[in-house]
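README, section 4: Worked example with a bound small molecule

Sections 1 through 3 covered apo chains. Here we extend the same pipeline to holo records, where the ligand is supplied as SMILES alongside the sequence. The molecule in this example is 2-acetamido-2-deoxy-beta-D-glucopyranose. Nothing else about the input changes; the structure line simply encodes the ligand pose together with the chain.
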Amino acid sequence: MKMGTSNIFKDQSLFVTKRLVPWILCTLLLLPITLLHLYFYPIFFSPEIQLPPSSPITITSHSSLSLPPTSTASSEKDTAHETPCDYSNGEWIKDTIGPLYNATTCNTIKESEKCIPNGRPDTGYLYWKWKPSPCHLPRFEPHTFLQLIRNKHIAFVGDSLARNQLESLLCMLATVSATNLTYGDGEENKFRRWHFPSHNANFSLYWSPFLVQGVERNQNKGPSCNTMHLDHVNERWAKDIDQMDMIVISFGHWFLLPSVYIEGGSVLGSLNCPELNHTEMDFYDPLRKVLRTSLNSIIERKAAKGSGIDVIVKTFSPDHFEGDWNKGGTCSKTRPYREEEKKLEGMDAEIRRIQIEEMENAKAKANEFGGFRLEALDVTKLALLRPDGHPGPYMNPFPFANGVQEHVQNDCVHWCLPGPIDTWSEILLDMIKSWKEKPRSKE
Ligand SMILES: *[C@@H]1O[C@H](CO)[C@@H](O)[C@H](O)[C@H]1NC(C)=O
Ligand SMILES: *[C@@H]1O[C@H](CO)[C@@H](O)[C@H](O)[C@H]1NC(C)=O
Ligand SMILES: *[C@@H]1O[C@H](CO)[C@@H](O)[C@H](O)[C@H]1NC(C)=O
Ligand SMILES: *[C@@H]1O[C@H](CO)[C@@H](O)[C@H](O)[C@H]1NC(C)=O
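The generated complex, written as structure tokens:
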């Protein structure tokens, strides 16, 4: 992975993107082009993030839903919701139990997320649980999850957070049932599949950070801007829609990078690619359009076959870089924010709002056909409150082994495994359980 080769630049890129984008968009033409180029040239969310652990890392129809869940070793009572719980707001409270798995018991964890084996000294971040304001979120029950997805194929589609969440989920499921990788696309591992023979359930991972067709910019050579065709779904995943029973979509971070947007065969504009002379625009409208294109494709293709599907849109998961952008941002906090300490606002709130709106629009459209369930897995707030859950410098093994370096590469975007991202699947499970009580309607 290349993240470490351009430590400062990456942080510049994220800093500028996060805090200065609105300003940049207004005053772009007044800024020296070279400066912008320097800011945005290096890439953080590079495809290299998808490298498998074995790669050298050198840098610093849902009838089965009626199955009853068995009770497990969970010490907590399962709450059946009359109305679905709103999980999105709440607070992190102390928890003594800790995670279901560790890096020894799970072999699907990417090296850069093995925080404890990589030398992270504090473990307090493992002992918190999410308490939604209106209800209680039960602990993850791997047996129940597997029973509910018996004979199903669940696809995780999108960016590296999709991979991060699926790896977390697989670690939790693997505590009760053996799984094997049944497909891997070789070195980059952008596309993978796992099979649980115990329940004939499959999980697949599809790398598609734009969701639509596009060309990823290249850090070293080739285009310095991403290209996205806003009205053409990426067939690399969409061609398999027929085989999928549930799709979990994760995207957002790649939209902060310099990009050219194409629609109807012509260029709409671009973000931070001044050398191309296109109309400058922000990424919010493109972000909305790629989700609309993707959800429309799913609905149209399934409806054409007379079948439905479950679609989960996982909302944006904010990063936690802090510190001077030109001195290497870090995320050094070791405990969650309290609810009142950190507001959901600005870009994080806007991306989330667009994702939920488009999901709701698609849901209305899908209701004309019946057989569809669309929901948001709204993790933005609970992720925002966890600055302590990222690998930080422990994305690399023992980053301080040679003393404290001036610049140590930090990952303040992805999540340690185990870690707070495990909660996302607790919520996912509770959503699927509530569906069981309210089967998909065929109106
Ligand atoms: C990982 O979990 C296993 C099983 O619970 C336990 O035996 C082992 O000691 C744990 N390893 C670490 C490093 O915590
Ligand atoms: C899961 O994948 C296996 C091949 O690994 C296949 O035989 C099986 O039919 C698939 N099951 C589902 C539900 O997709
Ligand atoms: C996984 O693969 C290994 C080696 O092919 C095999 O021995 C094992 O039975 C498989 N396990 C499962 C759960 O399919
Ligand atoms: C952008 O515009 C400048 C000035 O008009 C011109 O010199 C340059 O060739 C243009 N670049 C592209 C890619 O069209």
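What to look for in the output: DSSP finds nine helices and 13 strands in the chain. Residues 3-48+84-437 form one domain.

Section 5 describes how to batch many such records.
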